[in-house]
Design a protein that fits this description.
alpha/beta; Rossmann fold; 6-stranded parallel sheet
Length: 561
C-alpha cells in the first residue's frame, strides 16, 4: 500500500463513498473533444465526486488502468487526487491496451480481483470489514455494474463464512472448509447458501432426526411442520439436493447471530447503486434498421445479458432520464421505488454565459483553426458541436445539413469538435466535408479541443447542434443550455426531449432537411433564437450538482438504514 493510500485509509473521519467508472479515459484530466468512449459520463462522475466531496464525503473513483493515458506514454496506474477529498485509483486488469467498451467484458474478472484486494487492504488498515469500508458503491454503465455486483458477492461469501462459524455456538465451524480469499469465493457460499447450509447441517449431524437437528441449531425456534432432514443417499443425488435446499432455506431464514439472520446481513452488505447512463435495449431499438456490420460491433446481446443480470442482483438504481427509468422498470422489472432520479447536472462555474474578456482566447482559437479573422467571426453567426468522434453522433449529417444552410446564408460558420484526427470516423468526415464545395471556408473540424477553451467556446456560439442517435442524456446539449445558447437537437437526446422540449428545437433523427430548416430558422430570427436560449438557461439553472447529490445521499441512507 502506498503512503497516499495509507493516509486515505486512515482519514476515516469522513464517510467514504466509492464510484466505479470503468471504460474510456476517465481520470483527473479528461481528454476533451472526443477521446474514444470518453465524454459525458466522465464529466458526470467527476462532477458528482466533487459535489460529494464538498458535502463531507471522502470519495474514491475507480477506473481501469494498466494502459497509457490518451495520447501519452504515461501508464494509468496508482492514485491521483482530483480534489483534497476525491482521488482516482487505477484498477489493473485486461492487459496493457485500451479496450472499447463493447470489448471490456474480458477485463472484468481480473479487475474485480484487483479491486477486491485493494479494498480489503485499506479496510484492514482501517480495522473494518471490507463491505463496511465504503458507505456506498456507485457504479456507472454496465461494465462497472458487473464489477459492483461481483464485489458484493465476494463480500457476502466472506460474511457467510464468518456467520456460519459463529452460529449455534460454533457447532458448524469444524465442518467449514478453511479456505481464504479467492478459494473461499469459489465455494459460492452466498449464491448457493441454502444448499450449502443444508449439506453442512447434514454433515454436522448425520444421525439426527429433523427435529433434533433443528433444535440443536435453532434452539427454541418453532420448527415448520414440513421441515425434513436430508434423506439418505449420495450427496449428489437429486433427492438429497432437494432436501438440502429445503433444510437450508429454513436455516437461512431462522439462524440468528447477534440478532441478525444471514439474509439480514446480506442485505446490509449490498450498498451497490447502479447508474446505467444508457440501457442496451434502448440503444438496440435505435439500430434495428441499421446494417448488420454496424450493429455487430455493438454486441447488444452480450450487453443486454449483462444488464439483465445486474438488475436481478442489485437493489438500488439511479436514472439519468425518464427513458432509462422506463427501461429499468418496464423492461428489466426493477421496483420503481428503488430508482432515484439523478439526471446529469451542470458545472455552472464552467458552463455559463461569458463576457468578451472571458471569450477572447476562444475566439483566437477559432480564428487560428479557421483562418477567419476574429472580427468576421464576431460579426457572423457560429454554429457549434462537440462530442467524441463516433458514427452515432452523426456529425456527417450536420455537414450535409449545414451545406444546405450555407448555400442560402452568408457569414455563418460551423465548428465541429472531436478527434483523433487519424481515426477512421474523422477521416471519413474530412472526406465528406471536401466533397461539399460550399463548405470550403465555412465548416471546420477542430479535432481535440484544448480544455482551457472548451467551456468558453460554448459562449462564442450562436447555435449548438447535435444530431446524435445514441445518447443516455446529452450533456453537451445541457452545457450549451447553461451557456444560454439556442439548441437544435435530434429527438433521441433525452435532455432536449424530456427537459427542454419547448425550449430546444427538436428534429427527427436522421432528417437532413429537418436539421437544415431548423438551423436556418433560428439563424435568421434573432428574437426567436434569443428567446429559446433564455428558456434553456432557466431550465439548466435548476440542475445543480450539489443539491441533487445531497438529495441522493438522503435517499440512499433512507433505503439502507
Amino acid at each position: 500500500m502506498t503512503t497516499m493510500q495509507r493516509e486515505s485509509a486512515q482519514a476515516n473521519s469522513r464517510p467514504r463513498i466509492a464510484i466505479v467508472t470503468n471504460h474510456g479515459y476517465g481520470g483527473v484530466d479528461i481528454p476533451v473533444g472526443g477521446a474514444p468512449d470518453t465524454g459525458g459520463q466522465n464529466f458526470y462522475v467527476n462532477s458528482l465526486a466533487r459535489s460529494l466531496g464538498d458535502l463531507g464525503m471522502e470519495v474514491t473513483i475507480f477506473a481501469r488502468g494498466g494502459f497509457p493515458f490518451f495520447k501519452s506514454k504515461r501508464v494509468r496506474e496508482g492514485t491521483e487526487q482530483l480534489t483534497d477529498h476525491v482521488r482516482y485509483v487505477y484498477v489493473r486488469g485486461g492487459g496493457n491496451e485500451f479496450l472499447r467498451k463493447e470489448d471490456i467484458a474480458i477485463a472484468l474478472d481480473e479487475e474485480v480481483k484487483w479491486l477486491s484486494r485493494f479494498i480489503c487492504d485499506e479496510a484492514r488498515e482501517a480495522r473494518v470489514d471490507p463491505w463496511a469500508y465504503f458507505e456506498c458503491i456507485n457504479t456507472h454503465y454496465w461494465d462497472a455494474a458487473v464489477m459492483g455486483c461481483k464485489l458484493v458477492e465476494r463480500w457476502r461469501d466472506q460474511a457467510a463464512y464468518e456467520f456460519l462459524g459463529k452460529t449455534a455456538d460454533g457447532l458448524l465451524k469444524p465442518f467449514l472448509t478453511p479456505f481464504e480469499g479467492d478459494e473461499r469465493h469459489r465455494q459460492s457460499l452466498s449464491r448457493e447458501i441454502e444448499i450449502f447450509l443444508g449439506r453442512l447441517a447434514s454433515q454436522a449431524f448425520p444421525e439426527d432426526t429433523a427435529e433434533t437437528m433443528f433444535t440443536r441449531l435453532l434452539g427454541n425456534t418453532p420448527i415448520p411442520e414440513d421441515a425434513a432432514a436430508p434423506s439418505p443417499g449420495t450427496a449428489q443425488s437429486y433427492r438429497a439436493i432437494e432436501h438440502f435446499c429445503a433444510t437450508g432455506k429454513i436455516l437461512a431464514d431462522n439462524l440468528v447471530v447477534n440478532g441478525k439472520t444471514l439474509r439480514d446481513i446480506f442485505k446490509e452488505i449490498d450498498t451497490h447503486v447502479w447508474t446505467p447512463h444508457s440501457i442496451g435495449i434502448i440503444k438496440e431499438r435505435n439500430f434495428w434498421d441499421k446494417r448488420e456490420e454496424t450493429v455487430r460491433k455493438l454486441k447488444f446481446t452480450e450487453r443486454n445479458a449483462h444488464e439483465e443480470s445486474v438488475c436481478r442482483h442489485t437493489q438500488l438504481f439511479c436514472s439519468t432520464s425518464s427513458e432509462i427509468w422506463r427501461a429499468l422498470v418496464s423492461y428489466h422489472g426493477v421496483d420503481p421505488g428503488a430508482v432515484f432520479d439523478f439526471p446529469p447536472c451542470i458545472d455552472h462555474e464552467a458552463f455559463r454565459p461569458r463576457d468578451d474578456r472571458e471569450t477572447a482566447d476562444a475566439y483566437t482559437y477559432l480564428s487560428d483553426q479557421s483562418g477567419i479573422s476574429i472580427d468576421d467571426l464576431k460579426s457572423g453567426l457560429i454554429v457549434f458541436e462537440t462530442s467524441r468522434m463516433d458514427r452515432t453522433k452523426r456529425k456527417d449529417l450536420l455537414l450535409d445539413a449545414f451545406a444546405l444552410v450555407a448555400e442560402k446564408l452568408d457569414n455563418v460558420y460551423l465548428f465541429i469538435g472531436g478527434g483523433p484526427a487519424d481515426s477512421e470516423t474523422f477521416v471519413q468526415l474530412a472526406d465528406r466535408k471536401k466533397s461539399l464545395p460550399v463548405l470550403e471556408g465555412r465548416a471546420f473540424l477542430l479535432g481535440f479541443i484544448p480544455e482551457e477553451v472548451l467551456a468558453p467556446l460554448f459562449s462564442t456560439a450562436d447555435l449548438f447542434v447535435s444530431a446524435s442517435e445514441m445518447e443516455g442524456f446529452g450533456m453537451s446539449v445541457s452545457q450549451a443550455a447553461a451557456a444560454q445558447v439556442a439548441v437544435v437537437s435530434s429527438d433521441l437526446i433525452p435532455f432536449a426531449t424530456q427537459y427542454a422540449r419547448d425550449a430546444a428545437l427538436v428534429v427527427e433523427a436522421g432528417d437532413v432537411d429537418g436539421f437544415a430548416q431548423a438551423m436556418e430558422r433560428l439563424l435568421t430570427d434573432d428574437t426567436e433564437r434569443k428567446r429559446r436560449a433564455k428558456l434553456l438557461k432557466e431550465i439548466a439553472d435548476k440542475m445543480d450538482w450539489k443539491v441533487t447529490a445531497s438529495d441522493f445521499l438522503k435517499w440512499f441512507r433512507s433505503h439502507c438504514s
